[in-house]
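hey can u check if this looks right to u? its 242 residues, i copy pasted from the old doc so theres a chance i mangled smth
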Amino acid sequence: MLWALAALAGWALLRDEAQQTIALVLAPVWLFCEIADATSNHSGQGVPLGRFLLVWGVLYVTLFLGSKRRAVAGILFALGALAAVAGAAVLGSEGHGWNDWALTPWTITWTWAVIAAAPLALACLRLRMVLLPVAAAAACAWVMPWLHDGTGGKLLAHALAAGLAVLLAWWGVRGASRALVNLGVVGFALAVVWFYSSDVLDKLGRSLGLAGLGVLFLAGGWALERTRRRLLVAMEASEVAR
């Protein structure tokens, strides 16, 4: 907490990229640790932590689109991408045994304020550039942990993860961000592999399942790469038209 406050004070005084980057890294790290401590005695602790990583990760990959502070934007994009992928992976694998209402009302209130309300408030600073993907990430973060039971619920969890990735790719085209388009495509690929490995692979024989995985990598990779290139071409054409 003290490191985060000192970094925020340094940013306010110096207004340079180094202090801004340090402040924007340390502040969410402090909040993450507070949530981890508040939920340490509860089963399924990874759920609130995964929610935090997903929402803040999406915030950081979109907040600095078009920013002239390239060092800040680049570092925070990389960290945000890792956080978003890690958060989605945690929410896709955990959920059993977790109950939001097992926490005290005060803990529920402030953890959700940190997980969703604070990122949405920051997103409102750049309303058109950030709000929709952050709101979508917050919705996915809330729903996904409850979708582990039943075939329909699992399919919806996969669909939500893939849909969020598609939204990020489209948002990258809209914001003329090659990095965000690439992240969205990679996220979609990971969602498809997650679906195959968790819901299809174990229903096939060993040899057939591995063969199907190879076909998925080859055919799916080829199709995604063509789609990615088309998106980038469309984005560049749109930039030229402007």
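The chain has two domains: 1-146, 150-242.
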